[in-house]
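Throughout our pipeline, every protein is held as a single compact record rather than as scattered files. The record that follows is passed on verbatim for readers who wish to inspect the format:
___
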Amino acid sequence: MIKCLKLGCPALECLQQTVRQLYQQINGIILNGLRTAVPVLRTAVSSRPEISVAAGLFAVLILVTIISAYYPANQQKQAFQPIISAPGLPAVAESPAQMEVEVPRGIAMRKNVSAADLISQLKEENLWEITDQSKIPQVIFSELPENLHELEINIKKRAFLHTLLPVVMAALTEVAEERTELLRISQEIGTNFDNTYVHEVTRSLTSQEILFLQNLGNKYKAETLNELRDKVDIYPVSMILAQSAIESSWGTSRFARQGNNLFGVWTWGISGIIPKRRESGKSHKIAIYDSILDSVKAYILTLNRLPAYQELRELRKETRDSLTLAQGLRLYSERRYEYVNDVQRVISYNELQRYDRLQPAASQENEKSTILEFAENSHGTVHIWLD
């Protein structure tokens, strides 16, 4: 199984919480031991001064052990912060923690060296020439090349889109599988529990199903099954590709090159890229991701769980047409409706909706692929992210 780094995995958050609780218990034991040991040492030192040096060294050793155990745990608490948003600003996330998770089976991670190398790999993996009948190979590129900007504009666009396409499909497949399991469980327990708190749903469910619902509720910040069903869903590939093209200037922005950040996501965490034109008094940074897959997953989660995108999720109940859904992105940028128009123009001009009809190829291990369903409606430029 291939490994990667990911933001916001609920199962790992649960594991982290368990480790913290265990640490607290161990720390309590150590402190209790010190409370018992100190009086004994004080008595021993007063009666036998020759052991005072040894006792002092012993106390220092215990203190260093406690500090070294506490420090990384404290740092982890700061690293795992939820994605948040500010009115009128792009969706923002705290510093992405380096969390090791499994890449979906059948996906190969590829690391790029140059634009020419990327194009060669795309051709090798049958990702350069894509038709309406193509099945998209499950090949994930971890980052974009530094010199992508050197390519001729049409070649650059194709390299960017065809590199990102399987990445987006992998991220959407994960959400689609979450939704499939959620709907199965919902059907099993019936509609009487639609407005029941997720953490209280236990009727005729296995312990694994209960844990799944609780983790999903934590991940998507949803309190009830009804709310969870509204939030756990996919978006059209074309909308995601368009926003990534706008926010990363087709993969050539400084934030894309240095931080794998394709969507202009902000952070107020310790690590991040400081924008060159950040206003005086501002403290935000541009979030850094370990891979472009992490960036796409964080972006989808942002749209699915933040209140700012409630309108977008309401539109999704009625249509999967990306040009219509783009209207729900008004709060993604300070430019409001001008930004919405930019997204729609990028989708139309570059005929991105044709990618909505494509499906991921079956992996050799699974011999089948998750179906990603999008509407085939179409209606009929590039906004550059400046730093």
